[in-house]
Structures are given as structure tokens and as C-alpha cells.
Amino acid sequence: MTKMILVLVALLAGNFAVAEGKVAVFDAQAAMFNTDLAKKRIDEYTKKPEIASMRAKFEGLQSDLQNMQKEKETNGMTWSQDQAAEHRKQEEYKAADLQLLVKKLKAEENAALGQIQRELAPKVQTAVNQLVASEGIGLLLHKRAAVYVEPALDITDKITDKLNKAK
């Protein structure tokens, strides 16, 4: 058992020895989506007339469902079986419309975020390569791969700054 632990320690030490230089972490998505360009694209996306229309419809459907729920709580005990069934059917229709609208909004949002990622990914790679070279980073990990990270080792903000300056 002791030999196994020693071998494991030796292997791990060997891996760290290969990574000469600093160790750092970064979050590519955070670096990307915190850029001025990404914020501008997201703002443009939210101001699109079709998105604004879908969001207004979403809020209207939510309000309708809440009102229907309140009406059922207030008057439901006085309804006939037919009235209760009709109300339940209308609630189901509105809920289905709401679900469909949520799917559409999510698809539009994913498309917009995907476009931002495709636009910025090469720039992120360039910024990472430049920062790794200039700061002598020997091992760069994704931030989520680490259990604990000293804030000084996180270069996400530096990458975002480089991207903002690159324009």
C-alpha cells in the first residue's frame, strides 16, 4: 500500500514538473459573455421586435394563468362539473401555449448565444495564447476543473480585457 502511494505521488509530481511556469484557470464563457461586444449583441437580441413580442405574450399568458387560478380558488366551489371542466381545459390550453412560447424563446436565445460564441471563440483562443505566452503560464485549466482557486490565479478578467481591447 505504501509503495502504491509513493508511485502515485511520484506520478503526480512528475506531471507538475512538466508544467513549468505558472498555473492559472479561466472560464471561457464568462470571458466571452462579459465582453462589450457580447453585451452589445445580447442587448440587440433583447430589443428585436419579435423577441419583445414573444416576451410580452409570455407575460400575458403567465398573467392569464394566474388570474384563472385565482378565479378557480375564488369561485371554483360554485361551478358545475361542466364549468369546472371547461375552466380546466382553458387552463391546459394556456399552459400549452406558454410551454410552446418558452421553447421558442429558449431556441432563439440559444441561437443568439451560439452566434456570439462562434464570433468570439477564435478571438478568445488568440487572447489565451497571448496571455499564456506573456505571463509564462505552464498549465491552464478550466475554472470548473479546480476545486479551489486563489483569485489571483484566475485570468478570466484579463482575457475579457484583452478581448475588449482587440475589437
Automatic annotation (TrEMBL):
A GO biological process held by the record: protein stabilization
Pfam families, per the entry: OmpH
Protein name: OmpH family outer membrane protein
One GO CC term on file: cytosol
MF (Gene Ontology): unfolded protein binding
Keywords per UniProt: Coiled coil, Signal
Chain coiled-coil ranges: 51-108
Signal peptide as annotated in the record: 1-19
PANTHER family: CHAPERONE PROTEIN SKP (PTHR35089:SF1)
